């Protein structure tokens, strides 16, 4: 159950469906034969960044003396802000408003912050901070990344089916789910803080 919850949360924060229009736009100036190899390369960079946080994130928070309650509350606030960006019209995801590069994108903005962004990395740290969380986070990252990989590789087909308006509607629905999850995370963090005071 923990793994399913973690995978769902990571899929919501990476938001592969919502990122499809941005990815297509950024890769538009690149020759068509180069787009798939670049996308695959950036996806592997993204999973590499996420796995670094799986194994090093807990050590960093422990070194800084950050408590579980603080991680939950901070993660909830970050997720809430990301959810608002997904729901409210006219507001883009981090990196979405970047100018189209004249050369091939490299790590920024595709690998990070569009896939392995602040909300995703904060979520990974939150998962790893729980007992047995490193193993859960490891498998959750791989499964969520696999879903993201398949979604973005199929981006042209998905856009033909959903079109711009359909993709936007799906993103808003995911944003609403993320709002509810962020509120629950905030309440959990607050409850834990009050229990230890």
Structural commentary:
It is a single chain. This protein has 197 residues and is mainly alpha-helical. The chain has one domain (2-195). 80% of the residues lie in helices and 0% in strands. The protein is built from eight helices and no strands. Helix 4 (68-87) packs antiparallel against helix 6 (118-128). The two termini are 29 Å apart. Residues 96-101 have low confidence and may be disordered.
Quick structural gist:
The protein has 197 residues and is an all-alpha fold.
Residues in helix, %: over 70%
Q: What is the tally of helical segments? A: 8
Low-confidence runs: 96-101
State the secondary-structure class. mainly alpha
What characterizes the major β-sheet? none
Evaluate the radius of gyration: 17 Å
Anisotropy-based shape:
globular
Q: What gap, in angstroms, lies between the N and C termini?
A: 29 Å
What's the total count of β strands?
0
Strand content: under 5%
Q: What is the fold's blueprint, element by element?
A:
Blueprint: H1 2-14, H2 16-27, H3 32-64, H4 68-87, H5 110-115, H6 118-128, H7 133-153, H8 155-195
Helix pairs in contact: 1-6, 1-7, 2-7, 2-8, 3-6, 3-7, 4-6, 4-8, 6-7
For this entry, give a set of tags.
197 residues, mainly alpha, 8 helices
């Amino acid at each position: 159950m923990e793994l399913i919850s973690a995978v769902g949360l990571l899929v919501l924060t990476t938001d592969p469906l919502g990122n499809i229009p941005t990815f297509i736009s950024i890769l538009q100036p690149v020759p068509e034969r180069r787009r798939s190899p670049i996308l695959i390369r950036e996806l592997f960079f993204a999973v590499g960044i996420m796995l670094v946080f799986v194994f090093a994130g807990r050590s960093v928070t422990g070194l800084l003396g950050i408590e579980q309650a603080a991680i939950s509350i901070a993660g909830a606030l970050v997720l809430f802000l990301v959810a608002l960006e997904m729901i409210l019209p006219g507001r883009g995801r981090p990196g979405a408003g970047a100018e189209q590069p004249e050369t091939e994108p490299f790590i920024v903005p595709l690998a990070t912050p569009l896939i392995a962004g602040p909300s995703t990395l904060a979520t990974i740290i939150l998962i790893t901070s729980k007992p047995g969380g490193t193993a859960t986070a490891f498998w959750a990252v791989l499964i969520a990344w696999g879903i993201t990989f398949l979604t973005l590789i199929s981006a042209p087909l998905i856009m033909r089916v959903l079109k711009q308006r359909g993709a936007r509607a799906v993103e808003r629905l995911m944003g609403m789910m993320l709002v509810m999850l962020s509120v629950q995370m905030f309440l959990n963090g607050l409850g834990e803080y009050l229990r230890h005071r």
